[in-house]
Amino acid sequence: MNLSGIDLNLLLVFEAIYTERNLSKAGERLSLSQPAVSNALRRLRETLNNPLFVRTAEGMVPTNHAVAIQPTIAKALDDLRSCLTPDLSFDPAQAKNHFRISLSDIIGSLILPELIAKLQDNAPHVDLTFRHVDRKGAYEMLRTGRHDLVISTELDGPGMYQQLLFKDPYVTLVSNSHSTIRDDLTLKQFCQAKHILFSLEGQGPGLVDTALARQSLKRHVALRLPHVSVIPKIVEESDMIVTLPLRMARIHSEALNIKTFKPPVEVPDLAVYQYWHSRSHHDPACGWIRSQILETCRARVQ
Question: Residue 87 gets which letter from DSSP?
Fold first, then answer.
């Protein structure tokens, strides 16, 4: 049989007549008139080449063929209703979702330990895959569903949603044994010092360079590194200085012989957002993982 010639609404009529055993009551159930139900039944009989229901004193009695096909039709309609009705529930304790999240090492060091511990307790069957953020390809990964979330400083594209996770001020790290910088850090000392620039791309100016340029000033970037973990140790053992977000600096400079200064030039706070595409905006599972990340970040930066 060619299904393209079948009106699926006729299956709803079949279901209603089978349940009510009365054409008028079936019409009330479907908000249809009794003549409309009779017409639909006529079309069903022609399509299936069977009377389907016989009028008796007890009502519309199904034929043997109608009884035989009823379970299949009922299951098909239930499956369609389940498929087309959005499931707004999400039980993290039972969920077995696999979330794919893109973020940088910096942000990961700030939030991942607490986030993993939180999910281990509340959602033990949820799996996570973290990938290093690639800003050039991040939007496409979200658009195509290969990533559920991107946690980054800036990202743009049509159909994108964003939520601020936290802001972090910048600080300048200097060795306690620095040859010229002692109890305070002047703008002149800052510009004359050798700087380390943490840069994933390894090129281009940083936020500090942009801030200095507003005052027609420059600094000497003597070293560029794509990994932040080694930078504070280099600072401790040299006259090089570095400007990093406060919480990142704390994590990587604990127990080191280093002092912290407010940069003598105005550098905007690091603003970190989570980004997602409109394709997953109403998904309850994705909404849940976004809420867990937001709660973790807010607790972490207090």
Answer: -
pLDDT digits (tens, 9 = 90+) for 211-269: 999 999 999 999 999 888 899 999 999 999 999 999 889 888 888 999 999 999 999 99
Locate 76 and state its tokens.
Answer: 């098909």
Q: Which residues on adjacent β-strands are paired with residue 101? A: 130, 149
DSSP state string for 39-54: HHHHHHHHHHTS--EE
190: which residues sit within 8 A by CB, 6+ positions away?
172, 219, 241, 263, 264, 265
Distance CA 143, CA 157 (A): 9
- What element of type H or E holds 68? helix 64-84
For the chain, domains (ranges, CATH) are: 3-84 (1.10.10.10), 98-167+271-300 (3.40.190.10), 170-268 (3.40.190.10)
161 Cβ contact partners less than 8 Å away, ≥ 6 residues apart: 275, 276, 277, 278, 281
Q: How far is 292 from 254, CA to CA, in rounded Å?
A: 27
91: Cβ contacts below 8 Å, ≥ 6 apart = none
Give the span between the Cα atoms of 28 and 77, in whole angstroms.
19
